[in-house]
């Protein structure tokens, strides 16, 4: 933390001589911590629109955009340099009242724009020093239940702890999270998933009950208990696997061979989010009948297809973007394929695996590696042939298969008609998939060999 006690050094674009205008909330918190604020919120008594115009003029011709009205008035000043400053009227025209309506003490800070003086009625600066997320009041959490999740998100982003009384309040009011709008939940969840410490927060959410309140579909996993095949209940396994995935995603060089590590380091956030959500939800769904224990009770994992279906409705409820939802559901549906490939390996089966999983192959393999690491005792690649197999497949995919996939197919439907006199039918797709699988498996490299191979296949089928 920077040596701020009573005064904060404000950025230049916030320095008009404006008595009674305050920088408030997260920007004050971030500046005090020496972090770059994502945005700036300014609260003023009285006419927020007039102040916004005044600030825009001072900023050398910035634009003012009206985003809210009346009780929720909000004017966004977009400066010529692209900085956003949101102007709102102070709650009840009073700074102290305004700060007391906020979520956490570290966000209930204000800084006078004219002097840089910090106003801190709830000892938020002390909590910044202690690295604590502390509620302003339990009533404020009840009034806006998305704050329950914000507590964990802020703790993840800032690497803070949640104060014990706040944690107890989260436990008490966890059920209220169901009343929060999906869009707001997604915003918080997404920013939590971007943190390399999200797994510890997700575990803390499991402990204080917020996780199952948010995702009741995880409750059967917690309640099934360990069985003779699994040392953990399925929720504990999920949390351990989620943590293992985080290590793979955020410290790939320590976990994977170089080529695979480079690939993982370059994964775009939506691909990472899909993988993280798939891991969290991979064992939900109708219990898999193959997982029935000797006592007749269902244990452990959900059936992958029904899990994918259920995950689809969970992710719709959370308003995850379509692209992330579809990718996560695909991963859940196919997450057991790497294990099946390991148990029934053939070159042909591997070609099929690469064809079916397509561009999601690396994610499915990463999922499988983390899933295995979430079991007890967590194996290392050196000890465990499955781990070594998965890691080898990942390297093979990123160094070879992904390039091979971009090449045009060796045969088309036209070839089946011209060379073999076949009539177009549903069988075409199967035949062309078979050629593609053989090509991905490295068995076919050019068109003449593909034609010979097809001829043999057709002869065999007759
Ligand atoms: N549910 C909420 C959301 C926001 N706030 C208040 O509004 C401020 C701005 O909110 P937002 O921009 O969403 O979050 P930040 O705290 O600024 O955090 P970040 O910049 O990391 O998004 C917060 O600091 C907090 O004072 C609140 O009390 N309750």
UniProtKB/TrEMBL annotation:
The keyword tRNA processing applies. Residues 262-339 form the HD domain. GO terms for molecular function: metal ion binding; nucleotide binding; nucleotidyltransferase activity; RNA binding. Gene3D superfamilies: Beta Polymerase, domain 2, cca-adding enzyme, domain 2. Residues 21-134 form the Poly A polymerase head domain. Residues 159-219 form the tRNA nucleotidyltransferase/poly(A) polymerase RNA and SrmB- binding domain. One of its GO terms (biological process) is tRNA processing. Its cofactor is Mg(2+). Keywords: Magnesium, Metal-binding, Nucleotide-binding, Nucleotidyltransferase, RNA-binding, Transferase, tRNA processing. Belongs to the tRNA nucleotidyltransferase/poly(A) polymerase family. This is HD domain-containing protein. It comes from Desulfatitalea alkaliphila.
């Amino acid at each position: 933390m920077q040596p701020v006690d009573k005064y904060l050094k404000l950025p230049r674009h916030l320095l008009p001589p404006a008595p009674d205008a305050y920088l408030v909330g997260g920007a004050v918190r971030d500046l005090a911590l020496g972090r770059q604020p994502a945005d700036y919120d300014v609260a003023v008594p009285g006419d927020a629109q007039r102040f916004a115009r005044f600030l825009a003029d001072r900023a050398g011709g910035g634009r003012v955009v009206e985003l809210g009205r009346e009780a929720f008035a909000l004017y966004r000043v977009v400066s010529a340099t692209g900085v956003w400053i949101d102007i709102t009227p102070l709650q009840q025209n009073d700074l102290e009242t305004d700060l007391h309506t906020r979520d956490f003490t570290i966000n209930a800070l204000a800084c006078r724009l004219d002097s840089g003086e910090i106003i801190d009625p709830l000892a938020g600066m002390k909590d910044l020093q202690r690295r604590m997320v502390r509620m302003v009041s339990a009533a404020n959490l009840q009034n806006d239940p998305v704050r329950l999740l914000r507590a964990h998100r802020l703790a993840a982003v800032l690497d803070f702890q949640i104060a014990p009384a706040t944690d107890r309040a989260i436990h008490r009011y966890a059920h209220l999270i169901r009343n929060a709008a999906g869009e707001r939940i997604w915003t918080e969840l997404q920013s939590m998933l971007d943190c390399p410490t999200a797994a510890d927060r997700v575990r803390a959410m499991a402990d204080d009950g917020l996780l199952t309140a948010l995702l009741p579909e995880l409750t059967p996993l917690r309640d099934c208990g360990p069985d003779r095949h699994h040392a953990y209940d399925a929720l504990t396994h999920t949390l351990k696997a989620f943590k293992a995935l985080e290590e793979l995603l955020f410290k790939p060089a320590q976990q994977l061979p170089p080529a695979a590590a480079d690939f993982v380091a370059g994964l775009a956030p939506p691909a990472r989010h899909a993988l993280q959500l798939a891991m969290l939800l991979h064992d939900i769904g109708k219990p898999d009948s193959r997982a029935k224990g000797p006592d007749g009770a269902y244990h452990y994992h959900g059936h992958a297809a029904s899990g994918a279906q259920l995950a689809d409705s969970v992710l719709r409820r959370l308003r995850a973007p379509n692209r992330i939802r579809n990718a996560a559901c695909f991963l859940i549906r196919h997450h057991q394929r790497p294990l099946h490939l390991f148990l029934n390996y053939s070159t042909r089966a591997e070609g099929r695996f690469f064809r079916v999983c397509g561009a999601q192959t690396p994610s499915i393999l990463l999922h499988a590696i983390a899933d295995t690491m979430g079991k007890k005792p967590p194996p290392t690649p050196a000890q465990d042939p499955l781990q070594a197999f998965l890691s080898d497949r990942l390297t093979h995919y990123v160094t070879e298969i992904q390039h091979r996939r971009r090449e045009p197919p060796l045969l088309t439907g036209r070839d089946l008609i011209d060379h073999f006199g076949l009539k177009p039918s549903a069988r075409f797709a199967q035949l062309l998939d078979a050629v593609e699988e053989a090509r991905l498996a490295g068995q076919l490299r050019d068109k003449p060999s593909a034609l010979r191979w097809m001829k043999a296949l057709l002869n065999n089928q007759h």
